[in-house]
Amino acid sequence: MLTRRAALIGAAGVAAAPILAKAAKADEIMDTSMAESVDLSKLKRVKHRLVRPPMVHDHEQTAPAEPRIVEFEMQIVEKEVEVDSGAYLQAMTFNGSIPGPLMVVHEGDYVELTLYNSPENMMQHNIDFHASTGALGGGSLTLVNPGEKTTLRFKATRAGTFVYHCAPGGPMIPWHVVSGMSGAIMVLPRDGLKDDRGNPVSYDKVFYIGENDFYIPKDENGDYKRFSDVGESYPDTLEVMNGLIPSHVVFNGKVGSLTGDGALHANQGEKVLFVHSQANRDSRPHLIGGHGDLVWETGKFANPPERDLETWFIRGGSAGAMLYEFLQPGVYAYVNHNLIEAVNLGATAHVVVEGTWNNDLMEQVQAPTEYDAAYEGKTALP
């Protein structure tokens, strides 16, 4: 059932040989040529162009009765990314972004992805869809060398939010994931989302937040090291990775990516669906100033959502979804509520909401002012 293929091609392969030698079975692929063919010629084809997170490509919240073949294209890009001031990551990415783009289909649809490994890359890559069935999530059918492409089709049999990531084999798997190679796919029920009582639910917009832990090595002076290419970065990065203490925990690729000029925007009264993925470590999302009106903590839409959560849990290697209607204007902080990781390591986003303040929900009865401590405040003590 398993066959061997050439691991390396061209100059890029020669340069990457010492690294690829560590991937014990990265070049094993599954031979499915003897399987019975499936005739999908009568199904309608729909093609979506993926967009950079936190935005999401246009899609329908409910689908027609008949399943469709939904086509995507994605290019693998290896590049240097400045994660924070003076901290550079030799990144491996899907479509040049960290995280990779969010794909949206409906339960029963067929996902057809053409994956390109750019010829200027050094490494073998593939894609493992947690939403799919068999062949290591498609990983053993999609292993591509630099300069190669492949097309994978799988049936989306389960509704929910799911992680995808690169998994080329052996020690390459965690390295590729913590170098940026993860994303998510959302499989909506054909008739759309439902609340905990079975009532239809819709959203006005989607924000996709991919959380990553990075392990950037430091030199003897405590300064972050910078490497000439992804292969050179491996030995030192591996040492930091195996210590299990990240140098950075960030949303969407770098510290501050979703604050300041990159902040998310919404209007008072809008219902926003937040999709949050973490391919490697557990996380605890929290919206400061708001709540999870409906939370699919495990991300699976066949299960009823929980209501009114303050903080929810995203297991490492999974994606979840939360729906919130913004009731007040202002700046909301969306954080990993391990506050050390949020504040000190970078896992913070801001949502700027336009609207009119509602004093019934919250009112500053008295602005801060000095008081006479000799007479006032005594009754506050037990």
CATH fold label of the largest domain: Immunoglobulin-like
Distance between the termini: 74 Å
Query: What share of the residues does DSSP label as strand, in percent?
Result: 25-35%
Model regions low in confidence, pLDDT < 50 over at least 5 residues: 1-15
Walk across the major sheet and give the strand order. 15-14-17-21-19-20
Shape: globular
Helix percent band: under 10%
CATH class of the largest domain: Mainly Beta
Radius of gyration, taken over Cα atoms and rounded to an integer in Å: 23 Å
Full CATH superfamily name of the largest domain: Cupredoxins -  blue copper proteins
CATH-scheme architecture of the largest domain: Sandwich
Largest sheet: 6 strands, mixed
* Structural domain tally: 2
**Average predicted local confidence, pLDDT:** 92
Provide the structure class. mainly beta
Give the helix tally: 4
Q: Give me the strand/helix succession.
A: EHEEEEEEEEEHEEEEHEEEEEEEEHE
DSSP E strands, number = 23
How is this structure best described in words?
This is Copper-containing nitrite reductase. Cu cation binds at residues 125, 130, 165-166, 176, 181, 337. One of its GO terms (molecular function) is nitrite reductase (NO-forming) activity. By secondary structure, this protein is mostly beta strands. The protein folds into 2 domains: 2-31 and 41-188, Cupredoxins -  blue copper proteins (Immunoglobulin-like); 209-354, Immunoglobulin-like. Helices cover 10% and strands 35% of the residues. The strands form 6 sheets. A 6-stranded mixed sheet has the order 15-14-17-21-19-20. Strands 3, 4, 5, 7 and 9 form a 5-stranded mixed sheet that branches. The longest helix is centred in the middle third of the chain and has 12 residues, at 230-241. The chain is globular.
